[in-house]
Amino acid sequence: MDDMLKEFVVEAMDLAVNVEEHLLRLERDPDNKETLNAVFRSFHTIKGGAGFMNLGALVSACHLTENLFDALRTGAAPVTPLSIEAALQASGFVADQLAELNNGASPDSMGPMPADLEAILNQAIEGKESSAKPAAKAAPAPAPVAAPAAAAAPRAPSADGIDWESMYEAVVPPGTYSRPASAPAPVAAAASVPATPAAPVAAPAAEAPAAAPASDAAPAKKWDGVERRDEAKAVHAAPAKEESIRIDAVKLDALLEVAGESVQAANQAAVLLERLQQFKFEGQAATLMSALTETLERASRYSTELQRATLATRMQPVGRLFQKFPRLVRELAKDLGKEVELVIEGAETEVDRVVVDSLYDPLVHMLRNALDHGVEGPDARVAAGKNPKATILLKAWQEANSVMIVLQDDGKGMDPVALRRKAGEKGLISPTANMTDDESYQLVFLPGFSTKEVASSVSGRGVGMDVVKTAVEKNRGAIHIESALGKGTKFAIRLPIELSIVPTMLVSTSGALLALPMAVVERVVELPETFNEVGGAPVMKDQGRPLPVRSLANALGYELSTERVGIVINAPQPYILAVGAVDGTADLVIKPMTALTVEGVTGTARSAEGELVLVVGLSFLMDGCRSSVRMAA
């Protein structure tokens, strides 16, 4: 893909995503002129770039949709469910074409605009309330006849009170343009065409749909409707100042890695300097040591600032991801015969772009699961005393060094007894397993688990939630489920705000140096020599509450040793983690483990002294230093 096409695809994809959001807003508020204008502008912009790139199908689809929204905003056609559906289909087609181009397809290989899309757009332009198969004689729509006449009509002062015709005459060389002798004649010609609901559409929808690709791709300037206004503004406006540039994500990743390593090197240099200062220096050596100390402090400060600035370039609002879901929920709810409203909160919360990109599939699975399994149909909800329209909440916020993402529905909730029974029937757990309700909810993450008897196009194959947990843990995150019968279910995902540099607490146990993510560390306590026991397990009171005590060495499979320091872990089921010693805190540059997999260890790092550090996984700690559910042997 050449650079110009790549830049067009990236910008057009951003516009296409915004279009879907505007369309769903317009469905709720049909009289919102600002939204109508925003959709019109988006399709107009995409059409212009597509014409320059010789993408005929994109030009045709955008041109027809542009005509539709010009008719909607001028009142020539009403905002109906059909017009929203037609625009959503056009938006989907545009998004599909852009995705193909983004995946490496050449412009010449792109398919044409589907006939059914053209038909539904024409029906919406004509103001029809519902879709109908076009009759054979309806193919040559009256618009092609009216178009040439309408195009020739002089532009009257617009609704904003500006005479664009006069402005055009003022900026072109004298004698190059003259007004037509009479304006009413073309209008009368247009009116003489056999009447259809779209006949009165104003001049901006001038060109016929069939001729759109050729006319829009041509270099000639057009001076009616929005094109004239845009060109007139362009003549007088100075070139816009570039305030942002696009950078390949690979280059940003490389920059972040270098920034992280520079911080690591500065920390190691500081440790070495501290050791050197234990010796006595005199004369010129003392002067050099003083200068070296000052230089290293400055280098450390600048490397930290570089790291901070580089991290900021990778941060993106989760709203970029969330805005893709309202249409998915709308269409899936329609297919399932359910009424569902998706509420989004905290879209401005920023997180590492890698996290944003990797969360799409997990959230899609969770939304499909909530719609199919969680929320009930309207009749069942009314019978249960609920609002017939279900609500799904998608919310994000920052919490310390983590980002929390919650997906919550007000559906029927999960039945832990039914979950245990189904898992036992499938041989995923022992029939005699003694599990709490919280542990039972975790069964949905087992590969092959599903409560559906028959697989459908939405769910029932037992792979969706397994994909969710795998993706979350791959990003060093954790997921937790809360549910109540008859009230609903909440999935809470905790992820590090950024992936490569993590604030940690350094601990040692059984001769190993380990790092725990600070996101789950609550405080450090001293452990007694003996513990009270409940059910044979050690328990210690912390701030008046009894908490179980678990050995980090035992959880990771190390040889047992004396552990007299406890760390209170902030997990859904809090507990105290016993370690040998706490060695301080550090921001570590994490390297993922790719050559081998060790349960409980998510990556490696280097301490300021250069020692190898094993990073304990966030999910492992959140699950109580054990796999959340162990499959039956």
Biggest sheet architecture: 6 strands, mixed
- Briefly note the structural class of the backbone: alpha+beta
Helical coverage, percent range: 40-55%
Strand content of the residues, in percent?
Answer: 15-25%
Give the oligomeric state. Answer: single chain
Distance between the termini: 51 Å
The tally of beta strands, per DSSP, is 19
Strand order of the largest sheet: 16-8-9-19-18-17
* Uncertain parts: 133-156, 182-242, 628-633
User: How many distinct helices?
Assistant: 22
Radius of gyration, CA atoms, in whole angstroms: 32 Å
The global form is: flat
Q: Which whole number gives the mean pLDDT?
A: 77
Your description of this structure?
With 633 residues, the protein is an alpha+beta fold. It is built from 22 helices and 19 strands. Strands 16-8-9-19-18-17 form a six-stranded mixed β-sheet. A six-stranded mixed β-sheet has the order 10-14-15-13-12-11. Strand 8 (501-509) and strand 9 (512-517) form a beta hairpin. Helix 1 (3-28) runs antiparallel to helix 4 (81-102), helix 4 (81-102) runs antiparallel to helix 5 (115-125) and helix 11 runs antiparallel to helix 12 (284-314). The protein is flat and about 95 Å long. Mean pLDDT is 77; it is low at 133-156, 182-242 and 628-633.
Would you summarize the structure shown here?
By secondary structure, the chain is of the alpha+beta class.
